[in-house]
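Cross-posted from the bioinformatics board.
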Amino acid sequence: MTKKNKVKTSQTRGEDIQPSVHIDITRKRFRIGDFLAEKIIKGVAFLSITIIVLIFFFVFREAFPIFNTSKEIIKPATEQAKADTQETYGAVTDGDSKVKPNEINGAVSDTSAKKDVQETYGDVTDKQENPEQNGVQKANSSAITAKSTSTYTVSAGSGTDDNQSALKTMLSKEWVPVSEKPRYGILALIIGTFKITLISLLFAAPLAILAALYTAEFANKRMKEIIKPTIELLAGFPSVVIGFFALMVLATFLQNVFHYSTRLNSFVGGIAMGIAAIPIIFTITEDALTAVPRSFNEASLALGASKWQTAFFVILPAATPGIFAAILLGIGRVFGETMIALMATGNAALMDLNPFESVRTLAATIGAEMAEVVFGDTHYNVLFLIGSLLFVFTFVLNAIAEFYVKGKLMKRIQGK
Amino acid sequence: MILDKIDTKNMFLYYSGKMALNNISIQIPEKKVTAFIGPSGCGKSTFLRSLNRMNDLIDGVKIEGKVMIDSINIYDKNIDVVNLRKKVGMVFQKSNPFAKSIYENIAYGPKINGINNKHQLDEIVETALKNAAIWDEVKDRLGDSALGLSGGQQQRLCIARTLAVNPEIVLMDEPASALDPLSTAKIEELIVQLKELYTIVIVTHNMQQAARISDNTAFFYLGELIEYDKTRKIFTNPDKKQTEDYITGRFG
């Protein structure tokens, strides 16, 4: 019907010399091309939203059993098997020099009181850091961490502990997911993540913003053509390369400069992640600064302001929304950064505000442990909970950006 | 005796080798309104911008000859451009308030000059806004964004912002070209008042405007200064035929 209509219209239009007289505007025509294009674009948009929602839903569903306090998990059969594997694994890893103290410690824990276990374990973790301090096995350190984790994951499945007790340990200070009495101190991981995010931002944001300010306002055209692609090239660096650099070069250098005791710590990790975040913050800030109308520049200079005054007091405030977007993307990058965290932060979940202590981040925990965890285990669920937390934090971050920055802060800087 | 505030001698200006101003010599008296008229692209805006060295911002601009302000050549090597621009303020064709509050827009100039006393700043802001005849319209919303004002108000705000630095000369580059007749009338009235205190040089496309507000008028054509005289003489009995043709609307 519609097609016929269309043909008819085009015929009349073709024959007529004065088409405007004969265009029929009273009948609505169905345009298949427009319709399809519109629907496809709409479909793609909704699909992306659906995918995000589904991912979140899946991740959270896996985490959900943590909150399920009833003890309906049946594990007596597998438990026996696990107890066996524990022995075998212990024997095997005895050969491995590095993991040995942990294994012995595990044996001790069977006999001694639980309070003791916690403390001894803590001590051993610290000792495990010692070889790293001495710089004896720099390259191996993360590998060791991963290895010891794997050993534990398989050997001591926490079948006996129910989810309720796991939930209780969540606010504790320790992240010991694999032991006789597993403790899932997510709080330590959260604080670690925020600590390292803060450090990397304090390092990256000023550098990136100043570099962008220079590129946008002061550099001549040729200089700009060199600086911009160079910094943006850094964004294409695989994070494992940055992590490697931090592990081998940066860590030693910074330790020589600042003389702290733990070689791999949140400071080193933060700086390394900052390096990863700089190009992101730089690029978006530079775009935002370039987008500020040139007339602002002229107006300020005509008032007798110097170039620096103009850049700082006129151009920079005018570009605030863009700069905040840049910083948020930088935060997002650092927040989710896994490889650098694994390689350069020391990976010890210490709840400590000292920047020169090791930390373990949320993302690194998932990265290190997810591949080794027993499917459906409490530990497995907790890892998914961490995943959901990462999701939620990102949402909260964006919400803050949307409502606070664009609302109140902008008003304060740029007037109501 | 009328002092010559601005005095250019045999000034040439080149845009990447192409001549844009050809041998301009003009004496602009103090505390008068001097209007530059002429067709688009004749170099009047370029000349205006060279009076406070705004052309420095454009790559490839070369200037020869002398531009004397208070008997000092502003193109000398050891001239402080920043201070020159404090002395020679400028209002642009398109109103360009900063993305700040009304108060901050005005206070910006004094602040970068080192005035941080709140009381003093308040006073400067009020005086500048009153001088620009916009105080009554904005006094209750000084904290609001300047971008929320109407076009005419924004332009008067820009004038106030220029006045707040207390310049001696105010250059205006078609300040009313984007405004409605009412706002234009207000700005013209303002300019006539301001000449009591400042030397004003204004570029305009609107010949009635030049006739209404200026004391002297200069006619530019193709980068040359064709005629410069008392406004009344230019508009009633010009010496050059080109000037007469332009004013009567026969070309341009």
